[in-house]
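[audit] Reproducing an earlier prediction to check determinism. Same input, same settings, fresh worker. If the tokens differ from the archived copy the diff job will pick it up downstream; this log only records the rerun itself.
[audit] input (174 residues):
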Amino acid sequence: TIPRGDAPRTTCVACVVQDGEATWAHVGDSRLYHLRKGRLLKRTLDHSRVQMLLDAGAITPAEAENHPQRNLVLSCLGGDATPRIEVVRPMRLQQGDVLALCTDGVWAPLADRLLTGFSQPLPLAVPFLLDQAESIAGTGCDNLTLLALRWESEPKPGTGDTQAMWAMKTLVQD
């Protein structure tokens, strides 16, 4: 038995795409980005001390990038408290929409470069962005996970027929 204080903890982001709609849930600071025509349409908000400070207007986005408590999550899976899992209502996808799910090891070092990286085809974008995140973070690099999906067509009514192009890569550092 693992003592309660030593239990593994993790953040999580998950997304289900069905009948042309995306529904996602998250806990902690793993994120989902929904891009349309190269612009950010929606992003999950972190369950973190820094997000709380941003929401209160106590710090600026620039200050958040290097805040000493940027890795302090207020909700996670496996912690002592019941996690606060946020679930969004289904969102209708349009052709070309991109959904990107990633850990803080990806979004933190890349900042705005993450969003512009999806202008190229996903099988090229995902490994490129992971390489960039690893290079920027250096030897102290956090675990990197990035999964991306580009919605390619509208569903045919009543068929559930959907098409998407996806790419995923995970890099785990010891």
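[audit] rerun output stored. Observation attached for the diff report: The mean pLDDT is 86.
[audit] end
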